[in-house]
Amino acid sequence: MSPTACAAFFGDVTGLTRLDRPRRLYILWLDYGNATLAGLPANLIRRLQSVLNAAARLVFSLRKYDRVTPLLQQLHWLKVDQRIQHIHCKLAVLVFLCLHGLATQYLANDLQRVSDLDARRRLRSASTCALVITSTRLFTVGDRAFPVDATRTWNSLTDSVTSSPSLPAFKRRLKTILFARSYNR
Q1: pTM
Q2: pLDDT tens-digit series, residues 53-77
Q3: Residue 43 contacts by C-beta under 8 Å, 6 or more apart in sequence?
Q4: Are 160 and 180 contacting, i.e. CB atoms less than 8 angstroms apart?
């Protein structure tokens, strides 16, 4: 990439603050490409994490061997693997919209609550917001389809998140859960 193309892509970074430079140069790129990073091998995720760690050290002007986890927490930056899992958060928001009648009907028709099935009404899962996972024949294609992946993502969330009264509350609780999982709180 030529220097002119880099300047056009990243914009003018000279007027940015110390915090905004790495965010603009790396964080936005990583968030933009998180869908393409899903399924990366662990060694490549570690390399991306080292770049994120270097960006955090750059913000605080620290040395190479200083601890970086507290810095990431202070900046409210998720670890790379959690950023990649952010795809599932987008999917969970779409499921929330479907269940509350705010998404298109053809997507909502693919989702079914456990409590809506007569055979499962007496189960403990019927009192939760759990969805029925449809069975698939092919792992490679079927498990990545919207109804299957969306229900698995939704069912992996806690009841405090899935029972949120509104979309902003749902997003806030979802981000809190993701941040807590990222730093093992």
Answers
A1: 0.60
A2: 988 888 888 888 889 989 888 887 8
A3: none
A4: no
